[in-house]
Design a protein that fits this description.
Helix 3 links the parallel strand 4 and strand 5. It is built from nine helices and nine strands. It is globular and about 60 Å long. 30% of the residues are buried. By secondary structure, the chain is α/β, with parallel strands linked by helices. Helix 5 runs parallel beside helix 7, helix 5 packs parallel to helix 9 and helix 8 packs across helix 9. A six-stranded mixed beta sheet has the order 3-1-2-4-5-6, sandwiched between helices. A three-stranded antiparallel beta sheet has the order 7-8-9, with no helix packed on it.
Length: 311
């Protein structure tokens, strides 16, 4: 998985028309923070585990568990310095185990939130958190866990998290919900771009009416909104920003429809039948869907900013 885009934005919550959240990076790797990336493979299954924080005795026990499960492990040390963004761009990370954050437990929780907003498939264990309130870090995603471990002996907790992460890929509800939520979020970003062009703020009566009667009206389908936005961009001289977007979003819509209206093979819950054809959605397939959704979302945020400047 290459580094296709160097920056990622955190999707906004709430109403349309607010200024887009600035680009946010994960930041630099603190010097002296020891850690390893372990890419674990077995019979076509791959699990990427990033352990950071300097507990080699605990990380070794995690590796022993994976080896006992029949995984072959390739280990790579994280660099002393450099960018976290490069680490998460260039490696398939499924589980992050982190402690000894230089900013303390609360800063570590904030880092975990940003990681998950960037990729909602990653599960996180924060160890050495002391008395930090668990509820402050457990509210990020329906599809991802952030667990805490007060002490620094984290092996048992990490193994439980890894087991849970592996099991959810056989959860049909998880797979469907993840894909559908990505399309919902993308439609929200299209709504934001349209509101930006028409200079409609949610704090105004006109903005609220536009949101309620147009953008949230089920009569105005996503396909129509896509066409409208593409035409607007062409009219204002920003047509190049829409290049490739229509096909990318249409492909995501097609995958959403297959998962939303399909039959599940009772013997293989990762296989779905739609219109007589079988489709398999495993971890690798979901990674591809999320990557496409992330790139589409980022471009739509850029489009909203550009339209806001042209308005």
């Amino acid at each position: 998985m290459g580094s296709a885009t160097p920056d990622f934005r955190i999707p906004r919550q709430g109403h349309i028309g607010r200024p887009a959240t600035p680009y946010m990076r994960l930041g630099e790797i603190p010097r002296g923070l020891d850690g390893e990336i372990a890419w674990c493979t077995r019979d076509g299954e791959g699990v990427g585990i990033l352990q950071a924080g300097g507990r080699p005795d605990q990380s070794s026990k995690v590796y022993q568990y994976m080896e006992g499960e029949g995984f072959y492990i390739r280990r790579t040390a994280i660099p002393g310095g450099g960018s976290w963004d490069d680490i998460f761009d260039d490696n398939e990370i499924d589980v992050l185990v982190m402690g000894n954050h230089p900013g303390g437990a609360e800063a570590g929780a904030g880092f975990a939130r940003r990681v998950i907003r960037r990729n909602p498939l990653i599960d996180v264990l924060l160890y050495g958190t002391g008395e930090i309130e668990p509820r402050t870090v457990h509210d990020r995603s329906l599809y991802t866990a952030i667990w805490t471990q007060p002490g620094t002996d984290y092996t048992e907790r990490a193994v439980s998290l890894i087991r849970m992460h592996r099991q959810k890929w056989n959860d049909v509800i998880f797979l469907r919900g993840m894909v559908i939520s990505q399309i919902v979020d993308i439609e929200g970003r299209i709504n934001d771009a349209l509101a930006a062009h028409f200079r409609l703020e949610p704090s105004t009566p006109r903005g609220r009416r536009f949101e309620e009667y147009v953008l949230e009206n089920p009569m105005y389908m996503l396909e129509g909104k896509k066409r409208a936005l593409g035409s607007i961009l062409k009219d204002v001289g920003l047509g190049e920003m829409w290049a490739g977007m229509n096909s990318r979003i249409s492909d995501l819509q097609g995958k959403r429809n297959k998962l939303a209206h399909c039959e599940v093979d009772p013997d293989d819950t990762n296989t779905f039948t739609s219109m007589g054809k079988a489709y398999t959605y495993d971890r690798n397939g979901m990674r591809g869907i999320l990557r496409d959704a992330r790139l589409a979302r980022q471009r739509l945020l850029e489009i909203a900013d550009a339209l806001r400047e042209r308005a």
